[in-house]
């Protein structure tokens, strides 16, 4: 399976998924574990012997860039009832993305990172991982302030080794003469500047690029507009935008974007974590009001030891204290879901862990329900439908925060911690506030660039829900 998956990705831009989980660049063990995940759907492990014939048929089709979910394809085949062979069924279902109907690649699209901190380096890892056929997003440059003569070597070292997320998967070479880092064959130019208005990106061969500002230094339209220099077409901020800057939560409101605009925000990690479950719960049960309490890992905005800080409590030692602080995530919900009428309040506690946070959603619903109904619904939403890439679900009884380091979902429902009584539901939602958020950023940039392709087979939401219900 691995050579077929790799060839499809590199030569045709086809991403193979299994129940919304990518199989690209995965090891044998990872692929087997992903097949085992199918037990959450049908109660039985999905065999590679069962999915391989579909994959072999896919490899022989004349496909354009798209995503194909093997798990959904197998489920649809078993539910079909027409007696077709695997080849006949697969060919017919994928006819809308093969031969004369195949999509035309929109790439490559240049990307520039402004800043190279925690989020910037993780986004770099993701962009290099997704380089694929070269027709997707192409990281061309990083803009930073020079920290000294050994600046490039130190930044390469931070990309190569990460205390939380481990070693970079591949090779990194440093060329100090040309100010470049080559990561897995991807040449990344480092531009040293402290003034976005002083850079002409076309001088570096960069054109029509999307710039990702992960510094948070400018958050309003006027400030971010400084990045719209020659070579830059759009700007994406990895922090909550201010004023009329649209705050995007992929999976919830990204399809409503006016792509003619040039400035966007990916909101905050916490906003990305709480909005998908709030959206799901409001759609099914209705929400009257709610309170969000986030137990959040400390960040670079806090001090290691007690020292001056412009905020009231964040100056106290981060690794030594629980620090009460504010969060703008609750108010940001209105930007991501303008039709959401429930009043949401919020607060946050910073805790002495380096990564992974949990949000506690205390919701008053418009109707009474049961824990079984809530969990059955959220589990279903995590497996199929528009939120399946953003919302995950765990039924593990022994899960702790470090288990979710590297999670690509915006948030993960903890089934065993969920409390439902009458019209009250309390959800515990884990999220990797670094890597999961970075995945959301890349998904948003892919959509803005036109490189995010639909997933096939395209089963209607009702059909998908019926099949999942039947499988259970």
Low-pLDDT windows of residues: 461-472
Which class of secondary structure composition applies to the elements? alpha/beta
In terms of DSSP E residues, the strand content is 15-25%
- Number of separate strands: 22
Can you summarize the main beta sheet?
Answer: 8 strands, mixed
**Percent of residues in helical segments?**
25-40%
For the CA atoms, what is the radius of gyration? 23 Å
- What is the end-to-end distance? 27 Å
Dominant shape:
globular
Give, in spatial order, the strands making up the sheet with the most strands: 8-9-10-5-4-11-12-13
Q: What is the overall number of helices?
A: 14
Give the overall average pLDDT.
Answer: 91
Description of the molecule:
The structure is a single chain. This protein has 472 residues and is an alpha/beta fold. Helix content is 31%, strand content 24%. It has 14 helices and 22 strands. The strands form 4 sheets. The protein has an 8-stranded mixed beta sheet. Strands 14, 15, 16, 17, 18, 19, 20 and 21 form an 8-stranded mixed beta sheet that branches. Helix 4 crosses helix 5, helix 10 crosses helix 11 and helix 10 crosses helix 12.
Provide a quick synopsis of the model.
With 472 residues, the protein is of the alpha/beta class.
Task: Name some characteristics of this structure.
472 residues, alpha/beta, 8-stranded mixed β-sheet, 14 helices
């Amino acid at each position: 399976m691995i050579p077929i998956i790799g060839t499809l990705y590199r030569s045709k831009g086809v991403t193979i998924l299994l129940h919304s989980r990518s199989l690209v660049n995965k090891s044998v063990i990872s692929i087997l574990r992903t097949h085992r995940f199918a037990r959450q759907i049908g109660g039985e492990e999905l065999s590679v012997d069962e999915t391989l014939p579909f994959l072999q048929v896919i490899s022989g089709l004349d496909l354009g860039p798209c995503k194909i979910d093997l798990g959904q394809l197998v489920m649809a085949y078993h539910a079909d009832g027409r007696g077709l062979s695997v080849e006949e069924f697969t060919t017919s279902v994928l006819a809308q993305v093969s031969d004369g109907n195949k999509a035309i690649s929109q790439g490559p699209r240049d990307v520039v990172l402004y800043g190279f901190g925690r989020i910037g380096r993780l986004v770099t890892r993701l962009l290099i991982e997704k380089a694929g056929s070269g027709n997707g997003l192409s990281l061309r440059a990083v803009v930073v302030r020079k920290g000294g003569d050994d600046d490039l070597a130190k930044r390469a070292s931070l990309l190569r080794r990460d205390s939380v997320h481990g070693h970079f998967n591949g090779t990194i070479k440093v060329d100090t003469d040309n100010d470049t880092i080559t990561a897995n064959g991807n040449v990344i130019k480092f531009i040293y500047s402290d003034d976005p208005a002083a850079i002409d990106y076309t001088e570096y061969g960069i054109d029509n690029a999307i710039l990702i500002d992960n510094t948070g230094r400018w958050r309003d339209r006027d400030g971010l507009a400084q990045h719209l220099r020659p070579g830059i077409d759009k700007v994406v901020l990895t922090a909550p935008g201010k004023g009329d800057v649209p705050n995007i939560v992929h999976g919830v409101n990204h399809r409503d974007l006016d792509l003619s605009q040039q400035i966007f925000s990916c909101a905050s990690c916490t906003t990305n974590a709480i909005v998908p479950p709030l959206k799901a719960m409001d759609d099914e049960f209705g929400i009257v009001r709610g309170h969000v309490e986030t137990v959040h890992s400390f960040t670079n905005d806090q001090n290691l030891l007690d020292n001056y800080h412009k905020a009231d409590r964040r100056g106290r030692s981060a690794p030594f204290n629980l620090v009460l602080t504010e969060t703008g995530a609750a108010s940001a919900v209105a930007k991501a879901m303008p039709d959401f009428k429930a009043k949401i309040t919020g607060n946050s506690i910073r805790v002495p862990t380096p990564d992974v946070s949990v949000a506690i959603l205390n919701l008053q619903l418009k109707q009474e329900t049961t824990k079984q109904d809530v969990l059955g619904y959220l589990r279903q939403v995590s497996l199929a439908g528009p939120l399946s890439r953003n919302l995950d679900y765990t039924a593990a009884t022994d899960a702790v925060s470090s288990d979710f380091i590297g999670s690509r979902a915006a948030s993960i429902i903890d089934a065993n911690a969920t409390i439902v009584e009458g019209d009250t539901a309390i959800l515990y939602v884990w999220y990797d506030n670094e890597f999961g958020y970075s995945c959301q950023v890349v998904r948003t940039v892919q959509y803005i660039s036109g490189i995010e392709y639909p997933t096939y087979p395209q089963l209607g939401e009702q059909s998908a829900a019926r099949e999942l219900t039947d499988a259970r």
